[in-house]
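pinging the channel bc i need a second pair of eyes. not urgent but kinda urgent?? the chain im working w is below, pasted from the shared doc
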Amino acid sequence: MTVPDKPGAGQQGHGRWSSERATLQQLAAQPADILVIGGGITGAGIARDAAMRGLHTVLVEKSDLGAGTSSRSSRLIHGGLRYLETGDFRLVLEANRERRVLLRIAPHLVWPLPFVFPLHRGDRISLWRLAAGMWLYDLLAMFRNVRTHRMLGKRGVLEAEPMLRERGLLGGARFYDAQCDDARLVLATAR
């Protein structure tokens, strides 16, 4: 991937427009196989993939890399647990596979994050249904999830999350997803 040097760096009096014009002239002088517009995680990923395939690739972004939608993410790299409820098992498999890849290739930018899923009397999901869903989640991940789930009784949930409302608490589950440093992940992908 080619990232042109900033023309005009160190020069005085030329301003931003002169620098941008020189950058555009430099880009126009070098034919590219692919031009990717947008330097978020998707654009950076497309540019990286194209460059790794030997294509002369130019990535352009109107602001800083990762400054748009990518900077407003939840920072979660989830394994698709929520898709179990709608029966979209293919998406659960894909999300788990991609999360495993990120944990393997960028452990300094993506790390395990534990969650506790508490259930109270009157919740729309029963304890047995949560347990079945957690087992299915681990099974679809071929038990290669970040860590396998663990069902918790009322005491276990309160030990993990002491500020939870105790009244009506039935129990819950501990499961793991992953979290990332989204800005650094975009920058690492764009390199």
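so Strands lie at 34-37, 57-60, 76-77, 110-120, 150-153, 169-180. and Residues 89-105 form the longest helix (17 residues). — does that match what u expected or am i reading it wrong
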